[in-house]
C-alpha cells in the first residue's frame, strides 16, 4: 500500500467543497464539446494517460550565479526529495516517475532507494549524468571539457561515469540515459570545432555500447551556458548528427529553453520526429534565455503548439512515446507548488491539443486557407479546459485544487520543523 | 441612416442559427463568473466600449520586399477602402474609426470624403504622415532622411508635409497625428547620432507648433527597417526623450513589433504611462521582427499582459484613453477577414484583463506570493470568454460569427467583379 | 581582348600616385611577417586566388518593403549589369564571375550573353532560380508555396522552372544551381510542417535528377522572411537533412544573414564541412536580421572567424572549393562602390585568416590555453593587411585605391547620361 | 616607494628582447600616420591617459550557476586581491584604481586597506554595494527585492547598506557609488511594475541624500538575470528616468552585456551623453547574453564604435570623464592574464578611435556619402596600432608583452604555493 504524505481525508474534504461547481462546469463543457461530437469522458481519460517526470533536483530551491535564496523545509537528501515528489504526485496525479541526477542522488544502496520510492508509489524515469561539475577527489577536472576534452583520460573518466549511471539506472528500473554536457568554449580559437565534435562522437559511441537493449540514450542540446562562445552540442542540427552517428536508440531531447531567440521550436519538434530522432522533452518556459521558468508561465500558446505537433505525430505513429520531464529552476516559489502547477499547465496544453479538429485543420491546410487553419487551432486553445484537468485529477484520487489543498495540509511547515535549513543544500544546479 | 454593405437580413439569419448555443454558453459563463461576484452584463458592456482603429492601408494585401501576391477584389482608392472598412465594422462592431495615410489616401475633396465615411458610419482616427517614401515630383529626396536630414530644405519639406497632414486631419475630424520616420543609417559612421537626434527635436518642435490644442502628436519608435544599422527613434527611451522635449501633448506610440528580441513590452507600457507619455498602440504580433502578423496570432498571452497593464492604468487614471490601431500586413489572407479576426483577439485580451481579480492580485504582490499572483492572472486568461465577445457583437448589431457571415455574404466575390485586379495597387506599404 | 569600361591609363595614373607609399608599407609588413617566417609574396599570391561572385541584381539599388530610392545611371538590363560588373572586376580583380537570376536576367539568346560577358572578361557562377515571385502570365501562383505547395501542379511549375534554369546555366558555362524558396507560413496551423518538408524533398529530388554530373545544387536556408511564422528550410539542420536526402552533389549554402540572433555561424560552417555538405556562401553583414548590409561592415571579426574555419578546412581538404558570392542590398550607396569595397573586405578577412599561426593555435587548443589560443587569432586579425590587398590588386592590373579610381573615372555620371532613370527597374529584389 | 610584485629587472630583460622590433614597427607606423598629419607621440601620450578600473572580484576565477572551476593560487582576501591587481597595473600601466565590492571586500580597518593599496601604487574607483545576496545574520531577506521590496523595512536595510558603502568609500578616497540591484520578477503578475519603480525612485532618492557633493551615483541597468521575467531597471530608458528623477550627479552606467539582442549600444552611449546622463561603463563582451566575456573578444569593432562615440563626445565636452571598469567573469583563464589582455583591448579601441579622421567623417556625414563615412571609420580601425600600445606601456614602465612577462615571472606558481586552494572562495559572484 502506498504511503501518503498528505492526508487522504483532507483531499476528500477539499474536493467535497469544490465538487458541485466542478460538476456544473464539466457538464457545461461536455455539452459544448458534444456539439463538435467530442466525448468529454474520452478526452478526460486521455488526459489521465499523460505522465511527466519530476527531476529530483527540482524540489530544492534553485538559484543563479548571483545568489540562492533557500526556502524553508528543503529536502536534504534523495529520500526527502522523494517524499516531496510523492506529495506532487498525490495531489496532481500525473508525475509518478522521478528523474535522478548522479552523483547528486547517488544512493548507498540502490535497492533500498527503489523500495523507498515504490512505497511512495513512485518509479524512476531517465537517469542524468553529470560531467559539468568536478566532484571531490575526482582527480582530473572537467574545466576544459568532459566527453570532448582534448585529453583521453578525462574523456574516459566522463565515459566511465556515464556507464556507471546506466548501471545504477538499470538497478532502479530506469529505461533511459540523458546526456547533457557543458563542454564548449568561451573564446574564439579556444576549441577546434570539428575535432571537438569528433571526440564527442567517439565518446558517445562508447557510452552507447553500454546501453541496455531496451534503453534510449537522449542527447540534450543547449545553445550556450556554461560555455559562452560555443557549445559542442549547440542546436538540434548538431544533436541530430550526433544521435544519427551514435545509434538507433540514441535520440534528441528538446529543452524548450535551449534555443536561440525567436526560433520556431515546434518546427524542430516536427523535424526530429519526421527523421525518427525525437526522444524527449525538458519542459520549462523562458523570456530571455535558458531561464528555466515554470512551464507555460511566459508563452502558453507556444506550449500548446508543441503539443499540437506531438498529438499530430502520435496520430500517425501510435508507438511514439517520448520522455517528458519538467526542468525548471524554482527560485522564488515553493518548488512543490511550482511543480504541481506546471505539470497541470503541460496537461492543459495537451488537452487543448487533443481538442483540435484535425480533419478541419487538414482541409484548411490543403486548401490554403490560413485564416481558418489558425482559427481552428485557436478554437481549441481558447476553450477553458480547466474542468477536464480537475475531473482527471479527482477521478485519479488527486485534488481538484491541488495548490489550495497543499497549503491546507501545512506540509511545508511540517518539513520546516523536521528539516533544519541548510544554505548549501546539494542539488541546486539546474540543467 | 448608415449605408450597409452586408445585408442585415443575412446577419440576422446567421445569428439566428447560432443564438441558442450562444445563450447557453453565455449563461454557463455568467454563472461561473457570478461565483467571483462578477456580473457578465457589466463586462459585456465594457467590452463594447473598446474601439480599435482600422488603418486604411490594411484592407489591401500587404507584401514583402520580395513580392506581393494581391488578392481578388482589392480596393483601388480610399472610397473603396472605406467600403471594406465598413464591412469590418458592420460585422465586428468595434472598429468605427479609420486611420488615414497621406499621401496614399489624400482626397481631392476632404468634405466629400468625410461625408462618404459618415454615411458608412465611420469616422477618422489618427492621421499618418509619410516621409519614408519619395513622391513623384517631390523634388528633394528622403533617401538620406526626412525630419533629420542634414540639409535644412529637406527637413522643411518633411515638416511642411506633416503640417499639411494636420490641416487635412482637422477637416476630417481627426484628433491626432502619428509620426513615424524611416530616418537612420545603414553603416556605422553614416550618421552622427546626437546631431541627427538634435535635428529631430527641432523638426518635431516645429510640427508641434502647428498642432491644434485638442490634438495629440504620437511618436512611433522602431528598432530597425528600413534603416539597418541605426534608427533615429529606435526605442522607447529615445521616443520618451523626444516626446518630453517636444511638448505636453506629444506622446509615445507603442507598436508591438518594433522592439528588440525578448524585450518586455508590457513593462514599457507601464513605464510610459507612469511618466504620462503613453499615447497609443499599433497592435500586431511577431515571431522574428517587425513581422506585422495578426494580433494575438503568435503570443496571445503577451497581448493579454499588455491589456492587464492598460486595465490597471485605467483603474488608477479614468481619463486614460490611448489611441488604439491595428497595424498588420495581410500577405496571405483576405484583409477583411484578418482585421475582423484580429480586432476580436484584441477585444478578447481586453475582456480577460477585465476579469483579473485585482484585489487578490494586489495582495499576492504585496505578500510576495508569486505563484498565486501569476495564478490569478492565469485564472482570468484561461477562461473562455468567447460568449462575451459573441454577445457583445450581437447586441451591437454585429455577427456572432463574423467570419462565417462575411463568407456567406460573398462580398469579396462581388468586389472581384467590380474591382479589376491591379498588381501595383497603392498603399501596400506597411508601417 | 577584354573590353574595359575604365581607362587603363587612368588606373595607371592613379596607381602611380600611390605606389611609393604602398611599396613602403608592403616592405614594412613584409619584414614584420618575416619574423614569423611568413613570406608576404606567397600570401599575396594566395590572396589573388580568392574569387567571389557578383550577383547580377547587386548592381541595382536595393530597397525595402517601404521604399526604394534609385540612384542615377542604374543598369536597365543584363547587358548593362554586366558592364557594371566588369568595372568592379577591372578595379578590384577578384570578381570575374557573375551569378544570374532567372527570370530577371533571362536572355533572349544565351550565346550572345555569353559572348558579351566573355568580351568583358566575365564568366558565370551559380544560377539562381526564382519561385518566390509570380511572373506575368504564369497562370498558377506561388502565393502559398512553390516547391512545397499543396497542389502538385504548382510544384511541377516550380520544378520545371528550376530545370529550365539549369539548362540555361549549362549553355552559359555555370556549374551550380542555387535554390532558395520563400515557402513557409505566416500563421501557426497554416502549414503542416512534416508534409511540407516531405514535398520539398520530393521536389528537390526531381530537380536533382536534371543536374549535370559536374554541377552542384546549393540549398539556401533562411529563418524568416517572406514567411513570418515558419520557413520550410529554416536553418542549417533542415538544410542538411534536405541536402543529405537529395544527393551527393546537393550541398548547403550559408548566407550570413539568415540565422537566429546570436547564433555562432562559424560553428555551423565547421559542422557542414565536417559532414561534407558545405557548398557555398552568400556574404553580407547584419545587425538585426537579414539586413543584407555590406560584408564586414558590422562585425568584421565574425567574417574573419568564418574564414578562419575555411582556411582550416582547406588545409585538411585541398579539394574544398565552395561557391562564394556577395549578396547585399545596396540601398544608400552606389552599388558598384559597395561591391568593390565589400569584396575587398572579404579578401581582407581571408588574408588575415591565412596569417593565423595554426601550429601555435593547435598547441594552445590541445593544452587548453584559451587566452593564448584567442591571442593567436587576434595576432593575425590585428595586423594591418591593407598593403597586401593593394599589392594583390595592383599586380593583377587593378587599382590600389579602387574607390578613388572609380570616382575619378566618372563612370557613374557617364551612365547617368546614357541610362535614363527608371523608378521600377527590374531585379531590385534581394535574396 | 611602490612595492612591486614582479621584478623590474625581469620586465627590463623581457622588454630588451623586444625593443628593436618595437622601434622598427613604431617607426613604420609613425611614418604612415605622418602622411595624415598625425603625430604618433601625441597619440601615444593620449593612450597613456586612459585608465580603466579593476574590479576586486575580477581577480578570482568566476563561475556559472552550474559550476566554478577554481584556478591555482587564487586570492583569499582583499589584500591578496590587491596584490594581484598590482601585478596587472605593473605590467599594463592603465589600471591603477580598484573598484571594491561590499561586503565582499569590507575591511576591518579602512585606513590599513588604503595604506596597503597606496604602497602598491593603487587607489580606489567606484564602490559597489550588494543587495542581491543575503548576508549571514542579515535578518531580513532580499529574496523578493531590496530597494524595491514591498516591505519598507527591507528597503531601509538596503538603503542603509548603500549609505554605509558610501561612508566606507569616502574613507578610502572613492568618488562614486555604483548601484546595481537584482530586483525584479520571475512571473507575470509577481510584481506591480509602476509601484516597484516608484519604490525604486524613493529608495534611490534617500541614498542620493547621503552622497558627498563631489561624488557620482551610477545606476546600472540590466535586462534580466537574476530576475527572469522583469527587472526594475531593465534598460537605459528606465535608467535614464531614475537618474533624472534622483538628482544631477546621478548618472547611468552602461554594461556592454546588459542589453537585448541586436541593440545598438553605441547609440545608447550617444543618447545618454547628449542628455547629460552618461556616467560610466562596465566593459566586457558577449555573444548570447550577459556572458561577461573578455572585452573585445567577440566583437572588437563594436568596442571601437563605442570609443568612437566617446572620443567624439570628449571632443565636444572636454570635462566629460566617465567611470570605466572591466567587468568580466574569468571562468577558464588566469584572471590576471585576462585583465591584462582585456585592458589592452580597451586601449586598442580607444587608440583607433583617436585616429579617426573626424573632419573627413563629418564632411561625409554632411554630404550623405555613407560609403566613405564608414570607410573613414574602417581606415582607422584597420590600422595595426599594436606598436602604440607597446610603446605606451614600455614608456610608462610596463611590459611590451605583458602576458609573456607575467608567465616568465611565475607569479601564479608562487601564489599557488602561498595560497592553498579554497573551493568556496568568496567574491566569485559577477555583476
UniProtKB/TrEMBL annotation, chains A, B, C, D:
A GO molecular-function descriptor: L-rhamnose isomerase activity
Top-level taxon in the UniProt lineage: Bacteria
Record InterPro entries: L-rhamnose_isomerase (IPR050337), L_rhamnose_iso (IPR013451), Xyl_isomerase-like_sf (IPR036237)
Keywords: Isomerase, Manganese, Metal-binding
EC number(s) reported in the record: 5.3.1.14
Transmembrane spans: none
Protein's name in the database: Putative sugar isomerase
Amino acid at each position: 500500500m502506498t504511503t501518503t504524505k498528505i492526508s487522504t481525508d483532507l483531499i476528500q474534504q477539499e474536493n467535497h467543497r469544490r465538487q458541485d461547481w466542478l460538476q456544473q462546469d464539466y457538464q457545461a463543457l461536455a455539452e459544448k464539446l458534444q456539439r463538435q461530437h467530442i466525448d468529454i469522458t474520452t478526452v478526460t481519460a486521455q488526459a489521465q494517460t499523460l505522465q511527466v517526470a519530476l527531476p529530483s533536483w527540482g524540489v530544492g530551491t534553485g538559484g543563479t550565479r548571483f545568489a540562492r535564496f533557500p526556502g524553508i523545509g528543503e529536502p536534504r537528501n534523495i529520500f526527502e526529495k522523494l517524499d516531496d515528489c510523492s506529495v506532487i504526485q498525490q495531489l496532481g496525479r500525473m508525475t509518478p516517475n522521478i528523474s535522478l541526477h548522479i552523483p547528486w542522488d547517488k544512493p548507498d544502496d540502490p535497492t533500498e532507494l527503489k523500495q523507498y520510492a515504490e512505497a511512495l508509489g513512485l518509479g524512476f524515469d531517465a537517469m542524468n549524468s553529470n560531467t559539468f561539475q568536478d566532484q571531490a577527489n575526482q582527480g582530473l577536472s572537467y574545466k576544459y571539457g568532459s566527453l570532448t576534452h582534448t585529453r583521453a583520460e578525462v574523456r574516459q573518466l566522463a565515459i566511465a561515469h556515464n556507464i556507471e549511471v546506466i548501471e545504477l539506472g538499470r538497478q532502479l528500473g530506469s529505461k533511459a540515459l540523458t546526456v547533457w554536457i557543458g563542454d564548449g568554449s568561451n573564446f574564439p580559437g579556444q576549441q577546434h570545432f570539428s575535432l571537438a565534435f569528433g571526440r564527442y562522437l567517439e565518446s558517445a559511441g562508447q557510452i552507447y555500447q553500454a546501453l541496455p537493449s531496451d534503453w534510449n540514450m537522449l542527447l540534450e542540446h543547449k545553445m550556450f551556458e556554461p560555455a559562452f562562445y560555443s557549445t559542442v552540442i549547440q542546436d538540434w542540427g548538431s544533436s541530430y548528427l550526433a544521435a544519427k552517428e551514435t545509434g538507433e536508440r540514441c535520440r534528441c531531447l528538446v529543452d524548450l529553453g535551449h534555443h536561440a531567440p525567436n526560433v520556431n521550436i515546434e518546427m524542430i519538434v516536427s523535424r526530429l520526429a519526421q527523421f525518427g530522432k525525437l526522444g524527449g522533452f525538458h519542459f520549462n518556459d523562458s523570456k530571455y534565455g535558458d531561464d528555466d521558468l515554470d512551464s507555460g508561465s511566459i508563452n502558453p500558446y507556444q506550449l500548446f503548439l508543441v503539443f499540437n505537433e506531438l498529438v499530430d505525430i502520435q496520430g500517425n505513429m501510435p508507438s511514439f512515446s517520448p520522455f517528458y520531464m519538467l526542468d525548471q529552476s524554482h527560485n522564488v516559489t515553493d518548488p512543490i507548488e511550482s511543480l504541481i502547477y506546471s505539470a497541470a499547465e503541460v496537461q492543459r496544453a495537451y488537452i487543448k491539443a487533443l481538442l483540435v479538429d484535425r480533419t478541419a485543420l487538414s482541409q484548411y491546410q490543403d486548401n490554403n486557407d490560413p485564416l481558418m487553419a489558425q482559427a481552428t487551432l485557436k478554437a481549441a486553445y481558447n476553450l477553458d479546459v480547466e474542468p477536464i484537468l480537475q475531473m482527471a485529477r479527482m477521478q485519479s484520487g488527486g485534488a481538484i485544487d491541488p495548490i489550495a489543498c497543499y497549503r491546507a495540509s501545512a506540509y511545508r511547515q511540517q518539513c520546516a520543523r523536521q528539516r533544519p535549513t541548510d544554505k548549501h543544500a546539494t542539488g541546486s544546479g539546474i540543467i
